[in-house]
Amino acid sequence: MANRKDDIMKFCCEISANKKIQAAFKNSAKGAAVAGGTAFVGGLLGGPAGIAVGGAVGGMLGAWMTSGQFKPLPEILMEMNPTQQDQLYSDVMAIVGTLKWTDVPQLIAQVNGNASLHEQVLGAILNFTKNQLKAEVRLISQLKLKVTSEERGSVLTHNNTMNRQIDDVMALCCKISESRQIKAAVQNSAIGAGAAGGGAFVGGLLGGPPGIFIGGALGGALGWWMTNDKFHPLHQIIMEMPPQQKRKLYSEVMAVLGSLNWVDAAQLVFLVMGNSSLQMRLLTTLITFATKELGAKVEYV
């Protein structure tokens, strides 16, 4: 029981950290309980002097937890008293109780691999924080980033911004492809030719005539690899596509993302992976692109 409870607490902290959840407390009873509990533990460990030290430390912790300031939820969860930890343990076990695991990483992998289960656990943590801890909750990664013209310094050109966004979207597509273990067998010789030509072009830019030769050889090998009718991970194929195909995929993905705002690839991946409906629409877009644009056969889990 104790080991499983520790696993669940670490598991909840991991999910909270990944989602960047913060909470603000205004419940004075909780602060008092923390102060009293810390004084009690101090007394057990250090006698009267321990009570004084424990009370002082507990008082500061209690004030910190009830100041109304947002703090990372993982820190708060690990500071909860045993009764509250037992309650959270019960709430989460009602969802993951049928799973078998030997350590925390295995438990995390099983839940993160199941979007529905992940959403249920996240909901349980948020409900517990709001209802049991009486806390206000926010996911800071979903807050809009406010940047003034003074903070930006030099303004990025349209092309630089577009290139960054394309890179972010490619990273998202690769993440979805990896999580779904999508594989594709490309049979379109134009893809191979594009890879060979692209390799030669980049080689020429970097190394002159010898670079063209080396780049063409490497590109040819890559083109063969991409078109030899064997299944390969789709995320690898995506990252090796020529620029025009990346722009095509970018346009189709942006048609799904719409007005979604993000500041970097990590936040974009977080926003999409946390929305099962949006994730499924993008999965369909990826498979359609691979099938129609790349002329590939696709298989996935």
How would you describe this structure to a colleague?
Belongs to the C19orf12 family. It holds the Pfam family C19orf12. The chain has two domains: 2-142, no CATH class; 154-299, no CATH class. 71% of the residues lie in helices and 7% in strands. It has 13 helices and six strands. The longest helix is centred in the N-terminal third of the chain and has 38 residues, at 28-65. The chain is elongated. 28% of the residues are buried. Residues 143-152 have low confidence and may be disordered.
Q: Numbering strands along the chain, what is their spatial order in the largest sheet?
A: 2-1-3
SSE string? HEHEHHHHEHHEHEHHHHE
Instruction: Kindly name the structural category.
Output: mainly alpha
Q: How many angstroms separate the termini?
A: 34 Å
